[in-house]
Amino acid sequence: MQYSEKEMVEGCIRNERIWQETLYRQFFQTMIQMCMRYTSDRETAMEIVNAGFLRVFKKLHTFTFSGSLEGWIRRIVYHSISDHFKSRTTQKVYFLDIADHDAPVQESALNRLHIEDVLKLVEKLPVATRDVFMLYAIEGLSHAEIAARVNISEGTSKWHLATARKKLKQWINMDFNQSNYAG
């Protein structure tokens, strides 16, 4: 049975377990799929999703019904993804795979850019390009492994990575030059 967002939110705010379970079940699949784009490890994705839903339940009283509940939950889970990578990796992991020798990113832009900022930019990439970038740059898969996983050729994987790098460098330099990251 489908419940209204208002019923679920109000039930969760009252801390009623049945409504919390209903909300969790309704949005779980979408959120786990989002997390799986950033990590190939299902256990890690579950950890991130659960941390995200914990935040959702703690902050649900702030939901104003001005947008979709799914979008609001997605944003909170996305912050859990960001926090997960902030706590477990250094910024260099991201920047090593964005930068290349042909068109470097301005170093001062990188010094002011945070992992969350990079993830926001990565999220703007077209889906296929973003997936290849995440698999290569964050999960460390080879082009052969990516090709097998997403059913594309190695050449297509390399093209998506080059496109992602080019767009990310463009956006990073553009944002920095517009003083979005200037202190």
Number of helical regions: 10
Total domains:
2
Shape: elongated
The third-level CATH topology of the largest domain is Arc Repressor Mutant, subunit A
Low-pLDDT ranges: 90-97, 99-112, 179-183
Instruction: Give average pLDDT, whole number.
Output: 79
- Tell me the number of strands: 0
**Estimated structural class:** mainly alpha
Give the biggest beta sheet. Answer: none
CATH architecture of the largest domain: Orthogonal Bundle
CATH class of the largest domain: Mainly Alpha
Radius of gyration: 19 Å
Name of the CATH homologous superfamily of the largest domain: Winged helix-like DNA-binding domain superfamily/Winged helix DNA-binding domain
The topology string of helices and strands comes to HHHHHHHHHH
Work out the helicity level. Answer: over 70%
Distance between the termini: 51 Å
> What percent strand?
under 5%
Please give a structural write-up.
This protein has 183 residues and is mainly alpha-helical. The protein has 2 domains: 5-88, Rna Polymerase Sigma Factor, Chain: A, CATH 1.10.1740.10; 91-177, Orthogonal Bundle (Arc Repressor Mutant, subunit A), CATH 1.10.10. 73% of the residues lie in helices and 0% in strands. The chain has 10 helices and no strands. The longest helix has 24 residues, at 154-177.
